[in-house]
Design brief:
- With 126 residues, the protein is mainly alpha-helical.
- Helices cover 97% and strands 0% of the residues.
- It contains one helix and no strands.
- It has one helix at residues 3-124.
- The relative contact order is 0.03.
Amino acid sequence: MNVGDVAGLIAAIAFVLLVGLLAVPLVKLGRVLDEATRSIREVTEHSVPILDEAAGTVAGANAQLGKVDTITTSAAEVSENVSALAGLYAATLGRPLVKVAAFSYGVRQAFAGASRKAGSAGKGGR
């Protein structure tokens, strides 16, 4: 064996050691990637039922909101009807009541004026 062969043999052994040392991190990296793949698969398997349940819950909430919308619409209509009824009541009974009150006030004033005149005529005649 000459010096070139020995140098080649040393270079080959060094290369094998280098490949061996680099293979360990690559094997570990492969295991990490396999574990990450398994974890992602498990998360996906557990997430799908949760998402399905959430979709069902949202659909139920939307149905309930539809019912609430119907109730609030009906309440608004009732409020409008009560307001219209109050306006009708005020127009139908309010104006005549104001006229009756004004008439009764006038009658009271007339009686008060007549009693004052009668009282002053009786006192002045003594």
